[in-house]
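Researcher: Going back to the complex we discussed earlier. I've cleaned up the inputs and rechecked each line, so this should be the final set. Can you rerun the prediction on the complete assembly and write out the structure?
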Amino acid sequence: MSSQNSTGATILPFKNSDGPVDEDRRDFVKKMGVAALAVGVGGGALQCVRYLKPNVLYEPSKVFKVGALSNFPIGSRIVIEGRGIEVVRERDGMHAISLVCTHLGCLIKPVENDPDVGYMCPCHGSTFAHKGEVQGGPAPTDLPWYEMFMDHTGAIVVDTSKVNQKRTKLVV
Amino acid sequence: MSETAYSLKESIRHLPRNIKESIIRRGGGTAEQERAAAVFGNMFLHVHPVRVHLNSLRAGYTFGLGLISFYLFLILIASGLLLMFYYTPSTELAYRNMKDLEYVVSFGVVLRNVHRWSAHAMVAFAFLHMCRVFYTGSYKAPREFNWVIGVCLLLVTLFLSFTGYLLPWDQLAFWAITVGSNIAAYMPGIGEKVRFLLLGGNEVGQMALLRFYVLHVAVLPLVAVVLLGVHFWRIRKDGGLSRPLND
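Model: Rerun complete. Updated structure for the full complex:
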C-alpha cells in the first residue's frame, strides 16, 4: 500500500473507507467531545469567578460602639465620622440614620436649622426630610435607619448590617 | 574541509554583509518587487498594504483619527510603564507615590501629565474616529464586524480610563469609583454581585485598589492589544480604508 515519492519519503495512503460510515457513532463522539470541553472550560471559568470572590474581608466591622449615652444629649444630631451614619436623639428616643445617599453612594450632609430639609447630597442634589424620606433629586429610596441598642457596659451600639425597617426609636 | 569553505579572514570580511542579509531578506526580482518586499518582508510594515488606493492617502477622508488614537495608546503604554516604576498599589503608599512623582522624581510630573492628557485625548479621538466612521457610512457592509470590534475597543478605552481614575487614591478618585461602582450595582439581578466582585468587598478599599490596578496595567491593555490586532487586520480583509464607491 505505501509508496515513495522522489525524495524517498514514505507516503502512507489515506485509509479508504469502502464500508458505510457510522454517522451515529461520529455524532456521539463529537457530542461527547463538545460536552467534555464545555464542562472543562465552563468549570474553569466558574472557578475563576469564585476565586475572585473574597471569603475574608478586612473591612471595618458593621457593628460598632458610637459612645456612651451621655454623649448624645436630647435634641442632638451627631455624625459618626468614618461610619456614614448620624445618631439623632429626640425627646421620644433615638435612631441611627444612614448618611450614604441611596442614589450613588455619596456622603450626605446634614442640613442645620431647616424645618423641612434634614439632609442634602452634594453629588447630585437629592434632598431628604428629617426622618430620611426623599424630598427631591434622583435618590430612589428613603435613607434607611439602622438597628441600635445599648450593650451591658452602657455604650450605644449601631449595627449597619441590619436595617430598622419599622423605623422604631431606641428609648433609653 | 571542502574547497569552497570560507577562510577565517573571509568570514570576518563578509560578516557585516551576512548580518545585514540575515535581517533584511531580499530575494532579487524587479525593482518594483524589491520595493514591495521592503514592506511585506518587514514585520512592522507588513500591517500596511503594499499598494493603497489614492483616496486612502487623502487626509480629509479619515483625518487620521483612528491612527491618532492608536498612537496615543502607544504613548500611554510607554508613559504608563515608566510610571509603574514609582507606583505601589497600596492604600498606604499610592497617594504618596503619586505626590512623589509630581514633586520629587525627575520628569515625573511630565510623565504623569503626558499619561493623563493622552488618556483624555484617546477617549476624545476614539469618539471622533467613531463619528467619522458613522458619518461616512463606513460601518456598513462589509465592515459591520469591524464596527462591533470598534465599539468593544471604545468600551475597553473607557474602562481603562475608569480603572486608572482610582489609582491616585485621592478624594476625587475615591468618590468617583464609589459612584461608578454603584452605577454598576444598578444592573438588574446581578448588579450587587458585579459591584462586590469589582471592588473585592463592600467598599472602595485596598482590595478595590489592587483589582483596579491589575485591570489597568495588565488585563485591559492586553484585551486592547488583541482587539486592535483584529481591528487592523479586518481593515485589510474588508477592502482597505473605506472610500466613495465610485471613486
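Model: Worth noting: The interface with chain B takes residues 49, 52-54, 57-59, 103-106, 123 of chain A (CB under 8 Å).
Researcher: Good, that matches what I expected from the previous run.
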